[in-house]
Design brief:
With 368 residues, this protein is α/β, with parallel strands linked by helices. 33% of the residues lie in helices and 27% in strands. Strands 6-7-8-3-9-10 form a 6-stranded mixed β-sheet, sandwiched between helices. Strands 2-1-4-5 form a 4-stranded antiparallel β-sheet, covered by helices on one side. The longest helix is centred in the middle third of the chain and has 18 residues.
């Protein structure tokens, strides 16, 4: 996609605020909501240090109440931290007065969960709204909005009102509106949680295309690990206002360290044992039982014959109880739950050989 609206003549909206440095940086952030009558103060965020380089896509995941919404509101300046600083596009958002902050927000696009479209305005008019507020001329608005309608696939919906659009089409309007002021950073607040799975895939593909073609820095918050898997370069996991784990998408999925992360990841990769198997597991071994091992495979080992090698090396049957192999961030990743004879010495040798290839192995218990 060519984006001619990015090359329009005239003075950039944010020429006096941005520097050569782009991206997002949060330093030593703490956000405390003061106590109200009959309540205690709430620490929404604590000791947050986070960096999203220019052009990267960071997914912030956490359960309800983890601090996700507070985090995104600090980045766009709708909230002020109790402590610490927020830098966006080379500008310290936390140091700006209100007029400068309003100006700075034009370099930060925002996509909302429930679209936030004005029902009395057409798709074209909703996309044009931030440009009208910025005082852009009507002729310039047309030059910017029409390519955006084309980019999000809504040229034929130009004059339709929100009530005449599907959920996915409304979100496309919201994305185009977020891009209207030529932002360097795009924030997404649960942008797909109100959409069906097929539409979610289409919106994620659009966001990925926008990131690649426009080199936008994207930070999105979600509680859906499948969204993180499809879109993010990196992941930060929030729990009780703290970042409990951070890393590349592949590392987070392949080797989650925190219990919260493991629960999120397990819902997508199958790395958690299914309920029917958990119901059969026993902690103590009885005569005739089999030992149950949970094995995570990374890279080439995900499609390699490791279990066949184990069977040949130790002359044992390896029973596959549960498994899944998929691609995460262009790398193969697999998880298998298998049973082997329960001799302690044999189990130790099998675990050692599996680990020698860099696989994560956990002895879950025993089944009869």
């Amino acid at each position: 996609m060519n984006a001619p609206w990015l090359q329009q003549s005239g003075t950039p909206l944010l020429a006096n605020l941005t520097s050569a440095s782009s991206g997002i940086r949060l330093e030593d952030i703490r956000k405390v909501y003061p106590a109200r009558k009959g309540t205690c103060e709430v620490v929404a965020l604590d000791d947050i240090n986070l960096k999203v380089p220019e052009g990267a896509i960071l997914g912030v995941i956490g359960r309800s109440g983890a601090g996700k919404s507070s985090l995104i509101r600090l980045i766009n300046g709708l909230e002020h931290p109790t402590q610490g600083s927020v830098h966006v596009n080379g500008t310290e958002i936390t140091a700006l007065d209100e007029p400068s902050l309003r100006q700075a927000r034009r370099s930060i696009g925002m996509i909302f969960q429930h679209f936030n479209l004005l029902s009395s305005r057409t798709a074209f008019e909703n996309i044009a709204l931030p440009l009208e507020i910025a005082g852009v001329s009507k002729s310039e608005i047309v030059k910017r909005v029409e390519p955006l309608l084309d980019m999000v696939g809504l040229v034929d919906k130009r004059d339709r009102y929100p009530a005449e659009l599907s959920g996915g089409q409304k979100q496309r309007v919201g994305i185009a509106r977020a891009l209207a002021t030529n932002p360097k950073v795009l924030l997404s607040d649960e942008a797909t949680s109100a959409l069906d799975p097929e539409t979610t895939d289409q919106i994620l593909a659009l966001l990925n295309r926008i990131n690649i073609e426009l080199r936008l820095t994207i930070l999105f918050i979600t509680h859906e690990m499948a969204v993180v898997k499809a879109l993010a370069d990196r992941v930060a996991v929030l729990e009780h206002g703290k970042i409990v784990e951070e890393g590349t998408t592949f590392d987070i999925f392949a080797s989650p360290q925190h219990e919260v992360t493991k629960r999120f990841v397990g819902s997508v990769t199958g790395s958690q044992a299914p309920e029917w198997l958990l119901a059969r597991l026993k902690a103590a071994c009885q005569p005739g039982d089999q030992a149950v091992l949970h094995v995570s495979f990374k890279g080439a080992d995900a499609s390699g014959p490791l279990l066949s090698q184990i069977s040949r090396t130790f002359d044992v049957d390896v029973n596959i109880l549960y498994g899944q192999v998929e691609t995460i961030a262009d790398h193969p990743f697999g998880t298998l739950i298998v049973s082997v004879p329960s001799s302690p010495d044999l189990v130790s040798k099998i675990v050692a050989q599996l680990k020698s290839s860099g696989n994560a192995v956990e002895h879950l218990g025993y089944v009869s």
